[in-house]
Specification:
This protein is mainly beta and about 250 residues long. It has one domain (about 1-254). It has helices at about 15-30, 240-254, and strands at about 1-5, 45-55, 60-65, 75-85, 90-100, 105, 105-110, 110, 120, 130-140, 140-145, 155-165, 165-175, 185-195, 200, 215-220, 230-235. The strands form 4 sheets. The chain has a 6-stranded mixed β-sheet, with no helix packed on it. Strands 11-10-5-4-3-17 form a 6-stranded antiparallel β-sheet, with no helix packed on it.
């Protein structure tokens, strides 16, 4: 079973992550959405939301509030930031994902993993990811760059988040530039599984679309805001076979 929701974009200015959350809640109330938790169907299904959102640090900082289950509560914030040096001879650009309290992103040592399509997202992984990609520039050119998402096309963030204090799993598909100054990220879709603790595969958009492809991954997360309020711009991220793959991914990530 499959549902699609097409989000729209709104912008407003703020300072700091806590202010961002507060303003987002206010915006949701003004739109008549409210902070209502939507009860998932008893039999479970995957809810897929196609989108086309571009994030860039061109305006110093830009954030997208990701609401996986459209209940009016922000689950994650995708961020693009750009900080110029004192003499404006260069700067520091980064793409990151920030989970709201109680949620998590698959990753290791603070770096968010870039999952390939078909990789399982479940409770067997570490959910400590935040930084996706970074670039240090000098006189407008690439002086140094890194991160697991630098230059990645159509890979996936793996999420664990809570609905009514119950863990659910989901994903978001992104492409991150490698040479744009500042860095740019494009979000093209996201999805979550309505059944509590049921794994989802990266890129899976329906219960019949199980991409049992490669490696396993996991998340521990929470909730998000309505698509109509998704973007905020600021001015100033077989079981034995699975276990073997999981161990391999942990070793390579470390």
């Amino acid at each position: 079973m499959k549902r699609s929701v097409s989000p729209s974009v709104g912008e407003q200015f703020s300072k700091g992550f806590s202010n961002l959350l507060n303003m987002y809640s206010i915006a949701a109330g003004a739109a008549g959405v409210g902070l209502l938790a939507l009860a998932p169907p008893a039999n479970g299904e995957i809810v897929y939301t196609p989108t086309d959102v571009v994030l860039s640090g061109r305006f110093n900082s830009q954030n997208y509030a990701l609401d996986l289950n459209h209940d009016g509560i922000a689950d994650f914030f995708l961020s693009a930031t750009w900080h110029r040096s004192a003499r404006e001879s260069g700067g520091f650009s980064r793409i990151s994902v920030r989970p709201t309290p109680g949620n998590g992103v698959i990753g290791y040592h603070g770096n968010a993993s870039a999952l390939a399509g078909g990789q399982p997202i479940d409770g067997r992984h570490k959910f400590t990811g935040k930084l996706m990609a970074w670039m240090d520039t000098y006189f407008g050119s690439d002086f140094g760059s890194g991160g697991k998402w630098a230059g990645v096309v159509d890979n996936y963030l793996g999420f664990a988040f809570k609905i009514n204090d119950q863990i659910h799993y989901g994903w978001a598909r992104l492409t991150v530039s490698s040479y744009d100054v500042p860095l740019k990220a494009t979000l093209t879709g996201y999805a979550y599984e309505t059944e509590v603790r049921k794994p989802i595969f990266a890129g899976q958009t329906s219960d019949t679309d199980q991409q049992a492809d490669s490696t396993p991954y996991v998340t521990d997360s929470k909730r998000a805001l309505p698509p109509a309020l998704g973007v905020l711009a600021l001015g100033s991220s077989s079981l034995s076979a699975w276990r073997r793959r999981d161990q391999t991914m942990e070793e390579s990530a470390d």
